[in-house]
């Protein structure tokens, strides 16, 4: 797992000492996360991203450039040899658990009871179980059992 996410240095971090703030500075707008989501679901071309998200061409161009500059997507020649495509890097794939937990939060809080929504399934068609963070001893973690230790 790579520890270097950004290729482009970012001097204007919102909160330089906070990993959450830095992550949001990189992928915190909805279009970035939707592009990453769709790349995880197999989108590769500009046209596919635009069709799936409905994003304006100029905004999509900006987000693809940003995600490539930050090392979350890589641009390569498509197998046809005629176009460029975008693929997730290791850092981009590392966002899977973020997208998964956002999805699961949305399933619990953004839909009315019984309202239809898409479902993430594994390779066998089984719905992915809810992710629950646990400590080293297996105890579930939450806001009551954790705290942030500030950088010195």
General form: globular
Oligomer: single chain
Spatial strand order of the main sheet? 1-2
Give the uncertain stretches in residue-range form. Answer: none
Class inferred from helices and paired strands: mainly alpha
Order of helices and strands: HHHHEEHH
The number of strands is 2
- State the end-to-end distance: 26 Å
Mean pLDDT: 92
Helix share of residues?
25-40%
Largest sheet: 2 strands, antiparallel
Determine the strand fraction and express it as a percent band. 5-15%
Radius of gyration: 18 Å
The number of helical elements comes to: 6
Observed structural traits:
152 residues
Description:
- The chain has 152 residues and is mainly α.
- Helices cover 39% and strands 7% of the residues.
- A two-stranded antiparallel ribbon has the order 1-2.
- Strand 1 and strand 2 form a beta hairpin.
- The radius of gyration is 18 Å and the shape is globular.
- The two termini are 26 Å apart.
